[in-house]
Automatic annotation (TrEMBL):
<dbReference type="InterPro" id="IPR053191">
    <property type="entry name" value="DcsG_Biosynth_Enzyme"/>
</dbReference>
<protein>
    <recommendedName>
        <fullName>ATP-grasp domain-containing protein</fullName>
    </recommendedName>
</protein>
Length: 125
């Protein structure tokens, strides 16, 4: 994966909005992995400063627009939309993950029931 450097990640981090069964399940914020002056090959923490996050209405709207652009969205069991702030301070899509092994459930233990519910509903289709 190749991503552009976005200055906004240094100040506001990257927000991960996770959807199950077409509904927002929870959101988390991750701090920048690469910091100025850090050699690219230095060992890094995969998700530094990971914490629960309440998405703003603008973040939710951008994530929902990104998902609406994906063919078959209503049938998706899972999607994660990662957002960063653009130069204008508005949220921008950094990644759209449709297959993701890390759900950050340790930060959101109340979300386990929602994951199970969505998996069972998908299995019955």
């Amino acid at each position: 994966m190749v991503q552009p450097y976005m200055k906004g990640i240094d100040a506001a981090g990257e927000r991960a909005l996770q959807f199950f069964g077409g509904r927002l399940l929870h959101a988390s914020r991750k701090r920048a992995v690469l910091t100025p002056g850090t050699p690219y090959d230095e060992k890094k923490v995969a998700h530094p400063g990971l914490e629960p996050w309440s998405p703003t209405p603008a973040e939710l709207a951008v994530a929902e627009r990104a998902l609406a652009a994906v063919p078959g969205t209503p049938e998706l069991l899972y999607a994660r939309v990662d957002l960063v702030d653009g130069e204008d301070g508005e949220p921008r899509v950094m990644e759209l993950e449709l297959v993701e092994p890390n759900l950050f459930l340790d930060l959101h233990p109340g979300s386990v029931a929602g994951v199970v519910e969505a998996v069972l509903a998908a299995a019955q289709r």
